[in-house]
Design goal:
Elements: H1 3-26, H2 33-40, H3 44-51, H4 54-78, H5 83-100, H6 102-110, H7 116-119, H8 121-144, H9 153-172, H10 180-195
Helix pairs in contact: 1-2, 1-4, 1-6, 3-4, 4-5, 4-6, 4-8, 5-6, 5-9, 5-10, 6-9, 9-10
């Protein structure tokens, strides 16, 4: 990477960090080019060069936050030896990420129906694809061994991630009856039971 490219990446990273800080402190209305110029000192020409538009910047921020979440889940899985411990670790990691990275988690979950998503769907899918493949690659041998039920990938994702996303959305919205600590205690085993296969080993720790 050339020094110019490195400086460009550093500038983009600095803008995204500032954008997430603004979002966390003041909400989505704070994400404007004017506010980011004032916050970072980066010129409007540089912002448009790196991101193309405010929607492009928002899509880049979504990719950044999603990458952090997926990296957290991948780490939890790849440290686990068995299907059961892996799914339990993933559930706990997702909820911990929501608790410890509230602005990023809020941005991810609040963006489900945002206008920028369809406009940049191909770019977002391309950014997620390598990380989703790592998750699928970890899961595949457990499916082949019968430890995890064989389902289309979207259905497995709904069974595992769906409950976590909904709980996170409600907690982030301030729902008084949602407690992430309770969810982290009760959900891992229940989510595991929803996808366990017919040939799960019975030894301790499976």
């Amino acid at each position: 990477m050339s020094p110019k490219q490195r400086r460009g990446e550093e500038t983009a990273d600095r803008v995204l960090a500032a954008a997430l800080d603004l979002y966390g402190a003041q909400g989505p209305g704070a994400l404007t080019m004017t506010a980011l110029i004032a916050e970072t000192g980066v010129s409007s020409g540089s912002l448009y060069h790196h991101f193309g538009s405010l929607d492009g910047l928002t899509a880049a921020l979504y990719n950044h936050c999603m990458a952090e979440l997926l990296d957290t889940l991948i780490t939890a899985l790849e440290r686990s030896r068995t299907a059961r411990t892996g799914i339990r670790a993933l559930v706990e990691a997702y909820l911990r990420f929501t608790r410890d990275n509230r602005p990023a988690a809020h941005f991810i979950h609040a963006s489900a129906h945002a206008d920028f998503l369809p406009l940049h769907a191909e770019r977002i899918a391309e950014a997620k694809a390598p990380k989703m493949r790592r998750i699928a690659d970890w899961l595949r041998p457990h499916v082949e061994a019968g430890h995890v039920v064989a389902l289309p990938d979207p259905l497995t994702e709904m069974l595992v991630i769906g409950p976590l996303a909904e709980i996170s959305r409600r907690w982030l919205a301030g729902a008084p009856d949602v407690d992430l600590a309770v969810a982290a205690r009760l959900l891992p085993e229940r989510i595991w039971q929803s996808i366990r296969g017919d040939h799960v080993p019975t030894a301790t720790g499976t």
